[in-house]
Design goal:
Fumarate Reductase Cytochrome B subunit, disordered N terminus, mainly alpha
Length: 201
């Protein structure tokens, strides 16, 4: 065997053993799950945007309209929560090895569980807060059932809890986004792409 042939063989073995970027070809998530995820994101952004904008404008009618919009999108988040929970139960647990080690998967699961809890708690707190202030809660033309009776002291407590829950959810969302970017740019796997792709079924 000549030295040229030996060099070619060595080059081929080195190329074959070289590490490749960690890009998986995992299947996209089910279309309904992705759709509900992004609808929830949209409703959260709109609910937060409307209530923040309300603090910057004058005019009772405009402020009331913004508050009603905030309540409606909050209630949409609540409805989407139940749809997402039902779909998750139907699909069963997804144990995705691509998500990393067992510890990372456990931490991701706990984070998702906490986010789901807040997606349920935050709208319910807002619903109860409005009623504790003596204001009925409407969804389109329907008046929602009364959760609590008017009570100024309870309103103060629920208002504080509502704000705390909103900040907690924001913190988890930032963590969630950071984890997605870490998977994409550091681990270089396919998790973020799968959340942006659609497939039937």
């Amino acid at each position: 065997m000549t030295s040229s042939t030996q060099a070619d063989d060595a080059t081929a073995r080195a190329a074959a053993s070289a590490p490749e970027p960690r890009r998986s070809a995992g299947a996209a998530l089910p279309r309904p799950l992705v759709l509900l995820h992004w609808l929830t994101v949209l409703c959260l952004v709109l609910a937060a945007g409307l209530i923040l904008l309300r603090e910057e404008v004058d005019g009772r009618a405009v402020r009331q309209w913004l508050l009603e919009g905030h309540r409606h999108f909050g209630l949409f988040v609540l409805g989407l929560f139940f749809l997402r929970a039902a779909l998750r139960l139907r699909l069963g647990r997804r144990d995705d090895a691509e998500a990393g080690s067992r510890l990372l998967r456990a931490l991701a699961g706990l984070t998702h569980l906490a986010m789901y809890a807040l997606l349920l708690t935050l709208p319910v707190l807002g619903w109860a807060l409005s009623q504790s202030m003596g204001k009925p809660v409407h969804l389109f033309a329907a008046t929602l059932p009364e959760l609590v009776a008017p009570d100024p002291d309870l309103a103060d407590t629920l208002g504080a809890w509502h704000v705390y829950a909103a900040w907690a959810l924001l913190g988890l969302i930032v963590l969630h986004i950071g984890a997605a970017l870490w998977h994409h740019f550091v681990r270089r796997d396919d998790l973020l792409r799968r959340m942006l792709r659609f497939r039937r079924g």
